[in-house]
Specification:
The protein is mainly α. It is built from ten helices and two strands, in the order H-H-H-E-E-H-H-H-H-H-H-H. The protein has two domains: 76 residues, Winged helix-like DNA-binding domain superfamily/Winged helix DNA-binding domain (Arc Repressor Mutant, subunit A), CATH 1.10.10; 118 residues, GntR ligand-binding domain-like (Four Helix Bundle (Hemerythrin (Met), subunit A)). Helix 5 runs parallel beside helix 9 and helix 7 runs antiparallel to helix 8.
Length: 217
Amino acid sequence: MAGDKRRTEALAEALALPILTQTLAEGQKMPADTQICASHSVSRTVVREAFRILSGKGLIIARPRVGTMVAPRTGWALWDGDILHWLDNHSHASNTADFLDKWLADAMDIRLALEPSFAALAASRATPTANETLQSALRELQHSGSLEAEAAFLAALYDATGNDFAAYPRQLTGWSLRHRQAEAPLADYAKMTAAIAQKDAASARQSAFQALLGSQT
């Protein structure tokens, strides 16, 4: 069973890459089960399970009397953790690099749109416990400087908004951090954390914005 699961996950990844890099275009029919079985040395059960995974991530869609097609891009779950992991695994491949650069820029656009607003919300809504958690996460980040600590700090920021939907971008943020070249903007994070504690929404927003701009240099 464990072997089948690994084969299914590996096949899902292999089939996803041509879709994500548009080697297989939207609306194009996926290869037949028999062809996939032969080219990847897997059973039809593994193929069906891999298709189920890709369907759940919005990459493919089954149409009656037509077959399984590449789904429209508008439905792709690009923030999904597996998809981001697959892109990381193939980040140095020539057919992935151009798409990766665009998606990293797109991810930064999303963070620029969200994080300053999250900081302002946190300044307005953060509970004493949320403030303590954020400050503790900042100290850990200042001590270790690790990507894991930075992701935890930003997760604490998102939680401090008091908005359940704010947790959703965490995987995209973590992926963006893994590809950043600059050092963590610790000074701006410290200013933002202080502004949140002081309930200064305008300063918190500005510090979050500066943190993102500084991380691109």
